[in-house]
Amino acid sequence: MSGLVLKLAPRERVLINGAVIENGDKRARLAIMTPNANILRLRDAIHPEEVNTPVRRVCYIAQLVLSGDAEPANARHQMLRGLEQLSQALTDPDSRSQINAATEALLDDQFYQAMKALRTLLPREARLLAAGAG
Hints:
Blueprint: E1 4-8, E2 13-16, E3 19-22, E4 28-32, E5 39-41, H1 54-66, H2 72-89, H3 93-107, H4 111-119, H5 122-133
Antiparallel strand pairs: 1-4, 2-3, 2-5
Helix pairs in contact: 1-2, 1-4, 2-3, 3-4
């Protein structure tokens, strides 16, 4: 089976091509077969007031594309600039690997995969910002 596989918890909501879909009472597994479908787990959504760090900003731009609120071409340009800035700040090998994965996904118009790679950097960014504030 190809495509994206979503494993949904009971009552979990997901946005697929602009439509909010809520799972029933039991766990479910959905295979999304349409290439380039825009998908966003609502539990993973970043709210506008939470866009307060560099990684969150780039993730949020990808999220706007997935929700249909931003044009992919404009978002791609903004995200590539943001990824370049992140690559200058996050220089450890694991961060570089995730930034490279996000960049490759973005160049293939895979905004969900780019956001997924970037989300792995959120805990590291939080630690770095906490250490810098202390």
